[in-house]
Amino acid sequence: MNSTPTPSPPEVEIADLSKSFAAVRALDRVSVRFRAGRVHAILGENGAGKSTLVKCLMGYYRADGGQILVDGRQRLMLHPRDAHALGLGMVYQHFTLVPQMTVAENFLLGRERLPAIIDWGREHAALDAFMTRMPFRLDPRRLVATLAAGEKQKLEILKQLYLNRRFIVLDEPTSVLTPAEADEVLGEIRRLADASLLTVVFITHKLREVVRFAQDVSILRGGKVVAQTEVVAASEPSLARMMFDAPASAEKTDRSRRSASRATDPYLELAGIHAVGDRGTPAVIGASLSVCPGEIVGVAGVSGNGQKELVQILAGQRDRHAGSVRVGGQAFRGTRRELERWGVSLLIEEPLANAAVPSMSVMENLALRQFDRPPIAIAGFVLKRRALYPFAHALISRYGIRTGSASAPLQTLSGGNIQRTVLARELARAVRLLIMQNPCFGLDVAAAGEIRRQIMRARNDGAAVLLISEDLDEVLELSDRVLVMASGRISYETDRAGADRYEIGRHMTEGMARLSA
Amino acid sequence: MTGTFDLGWWGVPLAIVAGAIRVSTPYLLVSLGETLTEKSGRVNLGLEGTLVLGAMSAFATCYLTGSPWLGMLAAGVAGSALGLLHATICNLPRVNDIAVGIALFIFGIGLAFFLGKPFIEPRAAMLPGLPLGNWSDNPAIRSAFEISPMFFVGIALAIILEWGFTNTRWGLILRIAGESADAARAIGLSVHRVRTLATMAGGFLSGLGGGFLSLYYPGNWNEGLSSGQGLMAIALVIFARWRPLRCFYASLLFGGATAIGPAVQTVGISEGYYLFYAAPYLLTLGLLIYSSSRTRTLAGAPSELSISR
Fold it and tell me: B213, B272, B197: which is closest to B44 by C-alpha?
């Protein structure tokens, strides 16, 4: 590895790059120039080809055609090692840190050659010296599992700098951060670029970040560069138009006025819930909340602050140590009978793993809530397979589930279609309480919009909706009331009118003792 | 003068201590081997088979060459061969390491019984013990403190592994493979290679444990030689939370429990002593119940293990 610092960070140019996967053309003659010492944003919807582009650049994929030039010289990127040797580094959307190791150990892992015996005294001294030169610092002796999401992101960036990489690609760097953390991390990145220490490329779909932190922006749509401009010249709406080919926020979900339902009693009531997480440490600490019919209560929070455990309690998947759950004024334990009686529907995050049977067919998964009652079952135990087909086909066409056939195993579907399948199953009966956790995670804009409309429709029809999401924009868009969950507690509450993104973000990071790693 | 030779009831704790030292060695070697393998992210449940095959290989080699140390080497090599087989099968896509382990458990025992038939009767040279009880005139104490060098090899290994997991390149590489296969791949490591080597090294240590059984204590070869030490050692790893030094303490505990039965018998209790023979099994059961929980994952377990996912 070349460790002598070059006078300026590399300039990288991509020319006519193409890449196809089977019949899909992911990149179509893409040309982009990343100027030295500048922050360049790549903007685009899911599936626009952003990730494919940088993976070709970093040597993870081999492009079908086109060139990559580093400081004017054409380079072949056959392996990530080739990119690393030229000082190109990438921070992935999903962290590649090892949680059960210390910060210092994680720093060392990326090195090309580790010494056979590690002199920790010397390594720690070198790391401490390195940290003093950096814009943000971390204690090298801490276990990574105890770091907050923002700190992990900083560690990933510091790691690249430690490895002398001067050209850094960040793949959706802020997707797991609070607004304040995102501003801090991107602000520091911008400062490093302005000091001519780095050339930065960051992939995002958040216009706000592009306008605030990027100097250049390239917009990808359908595998092509549709626009490339300096940010000063571009305003947020014009960027949005180029990204979606339509003005953003054109179709907001229809929010009907709540009929004088304020007076009604809460339909869901949680009082003083305590529960422990998978590692045996407290995960939910005295959480209380209530949801009335016809309102959406959004719970914002950084992942790992007890949301998962809270939802599992509501779904009957986890025991609570203390506290009470009441639905419709009655004690609720999440049994199948109670779910049916009170019209409770749940969309748990990662439904393929948590709320569906991957190897069973789409049809069978759709019937999981109703397979033991008429018309699908006779006398409660004989399954009438013939009755399954019309039931499943009706839901498949109504929710636009794209599947080869109703008998295809659920695991063969795409993420969005799995999400739709589970949503269809949950909404197939009268819903009076809808509990949703990250309902649009990993979905493209169109699919997400459709699911949000379904949620709003359920609310407008009088259901009580509890929305637990890591996506603050989603919470702010849908909720009538916003709560914040941090460190296992409900730490903040505000109504829709008083919701302020930064105030909420501040509460999201408050008391960041990481409880359930 | 008879008093010095007959320790009476004091013989029981002495026998337990001596037994703990003697019996703990195979537990220690197998559990260190399993810790090494599991740290890389794979479970090898076949170590009971490895232990028995190691015992047979050691005894046969020693009988044929006359050298107990060559026998120990053969035990280790046989163990790593089984480890290589386990790793090679597990490297194939969609293979479950638990199922392969159980298959190799049965295979190892079967192979050892098949090849070991001719060696059941004869006697072979034994591993020497270190006479550390010479300060005493009492033969009971002298025999209790005749300790196998393998015991000290085990302690040294435990210390080296405990230190090596955090202070050497190999230790870090092993732990990355066991904690995050994605991170390992991202930095260009071959996870399969790391796990193969770790499983082979673990098999080598377990083979040595078997060699200890047939060449030191109890010191013969028969089909009832191991009474599940290989399996209990795996439970012991969970109790020791994947820490080599704790494996040592836990091995002493298991060794002591195993020694209760014979010790009680020597002082003339002839009724119900079979109950004491069950002590190590009860201990295993108790410790597993103690260290498991319905609501939490095992603390300290490498994240890539199939049992912690």
Answer: B197
